[in-house]
Amino acid sequence: MIPLPTKCSIAKDVYLFHKPEGLSSFQFIQKIKRKFRIRKIGHAGTLDPLASGLMVVGIESGTKRLHHFLKLDKTYRAKVVLGELRTTGDREGDIVESKDYNKDISREDIFRALEALSGSHSFPAPLYSAVKVQGKPLYAYAREGKTPPFIPEKPFRLISYEILSSQEKDNGKRFEIELRLRVGSGSYIRTFAEEFGRLLSYPAFLSFLEREKIGRYSINQSCSIDSTEE
Asked: Which end is more exposed in the chain, N or C (fewer Cβ atoms within 10 Å of the end residue's Cβ)?
């Protein structure tokens, strides 16, 4: 095994890595495994291919310590676009509903929607997710064009939020809001985006997502696999 960078170590054989967009969590940790010639590897929380950001990675004996990190709160920087609903809940999906932006959303409206979503809720799991129904992931039903027997409810907990920016897009037809969200473990930000849009009377989808923190651990402490030496 090739030694991993000590600067992103947070416990024995446990490291912080920065996953880029475009790779699934599985593909990313396999890339780490090959690069550092690791026999056993795992992680403490999936990121969608669309998302980038912080992952806790355990190698060898560190895989037995990952359970300590599974239930930690997560902090994300997210961009929500109002005006379109997409099959996957994010920018990679097909448009299934659209509504032009009518310049009718104020900062106070945004605050009210965020306040309504604060605290603990239960929302349907995204159809394109790894949540299993009768032993089969929901995304498998979706890709086969089949309707799952039921859509399970998943907990969502918004602990705190910050409005970072807002702007019109697509010649004023869409409206994008950038947020920083601290949420409980297991919270789906794609579901949040759709519910947030609903409260503002618009279809909505997630256009960008970066995980900045896991508990007290920050993305600034992480290593990029492409910047580490061979």
From this structure: C
